[in-house]
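User: Fold this; tokens only.

Assistant: Input:
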Amino acid sequence: MSTDHDDSRLDLERILIRYLAEERLTRRQLLHRISVVGATAALAPIIAACGTSQASASAAASSAAPTVAPTTSTAPTATPEPTPVPTPEAELHIWNYAEYMGEDVIPSFEKKYKVKVSSDFFDTYEGMYARVTAGQTGFDITFPASTDIPGLVAIGKILPLDLSLIPNKVNLGPEWADPGYDPGNAHSMPYMWWTTGVAYDTAKIKETPTSWKALWDERWKGHIAMLDDQREAFAAALIQLNFSANTVDDGQLDQALALLKQQHPLVRLYSVEDQQYMASGDIWIGHAWGSDIYTVQLKKPSVEFYIPEEGSIRGSDAAVILDGAKHPIAANLFINHLLDAKVSADNSNFIGYMGPNEAARQFISKDLLDTPWINPDKAIVDKLQELLDLGLDTDKYATRWAELKAGI
């Protein structure tokens, strides 16, 4: 045989493998399809992919597979092997929060797929988001808040996932399998989730607060902290007023602003560094994320946390593949790796956040599962709201937030 002919057969074999992977077919299933509809119809997509007018459907059929399905009189066929996984690229670049991934997650992926993973960390979420929306970050994967997924999809900054490479999607809990911010998980996979509430130092505050109102208590003036997050801060006020945390009603937002202005003279600082300010001793009570306080308690056991009785916020981050990613196969496989039950549990046990992975619960530490703000029961979950993408109406929050921070 000539070299050209050998190369053609190799090209056809590669196309056949790719087609089987994309269609999630085994070779045996393809043979059955040929026996039902004929070689020409069954192999038409493969022939089209070859991009050559010289190969006819019958010729492709004769070189790719028999045109007659095995009969019952033939010898038993071995169990077909799983559809081959496409070979990942040699590298993968991840952009994440610092200390927001278990220690063995990346090494175990590198060992399994022989992919070299580099991981970099963004200084602030706002900075990461700005670069993502500007495009061409140089990274393959990052972890935006679920609130921002619809907007990023709308402007084409994140790629659709290849769900055929993410079979571990079946491990998701039912509430995460078809989220409102990304129906069908078409562009993202939930990563970790958290609750927002109130942390306080029992060495300074002897009573047991239960309400958002504790952050407005004049007794703690100069020792109160609020999250420097406009949506979270407004949520603390809106929920007290029995309004939706996602309202765009100007009258309701004005009432929330008035409540935040009433609190403003009592607040020592606005910051997202809740771990630092609750460990410092200067802050006696603060607006905080529950998973961060779980970590603080390891160093300062006098700090407690509660989800306010009026209700609160449930938030989540999601793994996405960025537009312009140079390693999309490796990226999809890494997201699948994150959804492995043991990998997801290792993540939770290391960073103190609950993942969306139902299959992982059996491997998560009992202490984490028994922490009520990390793994709240249904009665509490039912009172939690998830912040939504408000589009241009987000400006209604931004202008009022700027007014509050200016001290007007």
